[in-house]
Design brief:
The protein is an all-alpha fold and about 100 residues long. Helix content is about 85%, strand content about 0%.
Length: about 100
């Protein structure tokens, strides 16, 4: 019974990851500014990364101290990417 519940969870998360990938592709094809596209793709990729790390890497069964380390790194990555985006914005406006 445990394996079947785990399999259903994996299939459910896989479906969510596929849906978010479709959202990313639609966002890339939409007539939006570069800034909006980059911010949206970073956000969706972060949600996907959290799902993969927490479910497929089995971190949901670990103590909180172990869970927080990769999530903290992911949050820092997002912050640095957004800062890089803000720094690059004046250059993107020139096109």
């Amino acid at each position: 019974m445990y394996d079947m519940d785990r399999t259903k969870l994996y299939v459910y998360v896989w479906g969510i990851l596929v849906a978010f990938t479709i959202i990313e592709v639609i966002t890339l094809l939409a007539p939006l500014t570069h800034t909006v596209i980059i911010a949206a793709v970073i956000t969706v990729a972060s949600v996907k990364a959290i799902a993969v790390v927490s479910i497929y890497q089995h971190l949901k069964d670990e103590p909180n101290s172990v869970k927080m380390f990769p999530l903290t790194l992911l949050i820092l990555l997002i912050v640095f990417l957004l800062l890089a985006l803000l720094i690059a914005m004046p250059n993107m406006m020139v096109q």
